[in-house]
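Write out the 3D structure for:
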Amino acid sequence: MEIDRSGLAAFLRRRRELLQPEDVGLPRGPRRRTSGLRREEVAALCHMSTDYYARLERERGPQPSAQMAASIAQGLHLSLDERDHLFRLAGHNPPVRGSAGEHVGPGLLRILDRLADTPAEIVTELGETLRQTPLGVALTGDTTTFTGPERSIGYRWFTLPATRALYAPEDHALLSRMFASGLRQVVTVRGPGSRAAHYADLLLERSEEFRTLWDTHEVGVRPGRVKRFRHPEVGLLELANAGQANYAAANVFLDALAQTRRTENLPGHSLAWGLWAEASAMTAGLAETDRHRIARLGAQP
């Protein structure tokens, strides 16, 4: 396939103009004159230089690689159909769709962009980081910079000592079991010719610990309720359990939904309601009969 430079340039310009700062977690600022995002803002979201991106919009520069096209699709928060269209304009066949793909939908990206005060990341089924929040980068470093098999945290766990140094030593044994069992499950789903199977073959050659764990055929190992990190500057950190993280993400989603509805002149309100089973300023007046009534409506404490 050949690149359609004029079509690609027009598509990029239009998508940039439609994307607002609030959509990607950026402040609008008082002096914004452009319709949508600035070129330098899109370039930063796509992890490329402003000059490179500007040349694409001006129908100049080299043909973007498939990896670069994927970065642009993520930076511009494209849907799957829009991503496939972008790939064809850039002269590439679109990636195969499915759970093994690395495309992150615009809805999930909007949620992640609003988690400004939470360390979070989006990863593939092999633990390859696709996107991180700023606090996520501060906690574990920018793990999107790894290439090849080292993109997978499971692979790094058994091959790079620096990866283990970020976690509390008392959790290492459980995490080793978790990464080995997780990889076995993915290999079973994806088959012997998959990238997961390739990673397993490499680890069987390089890590005696992995070989021992692989021979146990263990699957379904889950992390503990509390994640403990050993940060080189802060020291030991304990992160909230998954339930609290899900609750925070749900609130962010509701905030984003309410904002979207208001921009479309539709009613939209989001109330940050605490855990109503615990005594607080909002729940102190609830009697036991009130709690049972709310539970019958489907709202669990």
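The chain has two domains: 5-90, 106-240.
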